[in-house]
Here is the input.
Amino acid sequence: MNLNQTIAFSEQVISQEVSGETVLLDLQSECYFGLDAVGTRIWQLIRDSGDLRTIYSTLLEEYEVDETQLQADLEALLTDASARGLITLQDAP
Here is the structure.
């Protein structure tokens, strides 16, 4: 995972937070996705900054998690979301 990347939402995705979790609708594929509380926090951080290094640092501060575990979990979520077309990862300028 390259922490110097930025993350952008697909214009084809609508999200709504419901009871601390987030529901995503991909308008292109017409598929729904659900994010748990931690996934919702990551989605909020993407919305707020989109800067992967900032997101990673914030999560380290907010959760009791090993850096290696956080990196692996974050990379898995972002890779899956990117493969499904929900987000795009871009190298920072």
Observations:
- The radius of gyration is 13 Å.
